[in-house]
């Protein structure tokens, strides 16, 4: 069975980075945001980017295992029908993803995480330096990368 699940999302609304509830994203919008090639399914790379955006950096073997569990028909791709029940169970409610477009644009290598070079691009885009202490505080798992939730914390 799937772990508590794919993404370690806090259960209490106050724990979700104190985001102001502007708009909650539907499972369809979340799926479409990571379907980079707009094929209507998530391939291995797109699914890995989605997983890594909401968790600490997961090893490829773990992502492959998760994909196999979600990919009910075993065709190597995750269609929306396979994704929706998992997303609705995992994100109840779906988190506010108001920064997702910016996050995906900064994730130039498409791995679902923002590395040092991508964070430097963010600083350039904002026209200021990123405070190393604030960056370290946002990087909750200390892996040197920012997943989506860590990025939102940095942007607050």
UniProtKB/TrEMBL annotation:
Q: Does the keyword Repeat apply?
A: yes
List the Pfam families: EF-hand_7 (PF13499)
Q: Which GO terms describe its molecular function?
A: calcium ion binding
Q: Could you tell me the keywords of this UniProt record? A: Calcium, Repeat
> EF-hand domain: which residues?
22-57, 58-93, 94-129, 136-156
- Gene Ontology terms: cellular component: myosin II complex
Identify the InterPro entries for this entry: CALM/Myosin/TropC-like (IPR050230), EF-hand-dom_pair (IPR011992), EF_Hand_1_Ca_BS (IPR018247), EF_hand_dom (IPR002048)
What is the name of the protein in this document? EF-hand domain-containing protein
Q: Please name the source species.
A: Macrostomum lignano
* Lineage of source species: Eukaryota, Metazoa, Spiralia, Lophotrochozoa, Platyhelminthes
């Amino acid at each position: 069975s799937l772990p508590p699940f794919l993404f370690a999302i806090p259960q209490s609304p106050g724990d979700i980075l104190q985001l102001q509830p502007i708009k909650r994203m539907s499972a369809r919008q979340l799926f479409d945001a990571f379907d980079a090639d707009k094929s209507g399914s998530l391939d291995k790379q797109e699914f890995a980017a989605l997983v890594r955006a909401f968790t600490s950096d997961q090893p490829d073997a773990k992502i492959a295992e998760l994909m196999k569990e979600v990919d009910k028909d075993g065709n190597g791709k995750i269609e929306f029908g396979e994704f929706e029940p998992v997303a609705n169970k995992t994100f109840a409610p779906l988190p506010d993803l108001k920064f997702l477009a910016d996050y995906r644009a900064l994730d130039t290598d498409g791995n679902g995480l923002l590395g040092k070079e991508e964070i430097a691009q963010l600083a350039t885009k904002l026209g200021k330096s990123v405070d190393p202490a604030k960056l370290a505080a946002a990087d909750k798992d200390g892996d040197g990368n920012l997943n989506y939730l860590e990025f939102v914390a940095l942007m607050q």
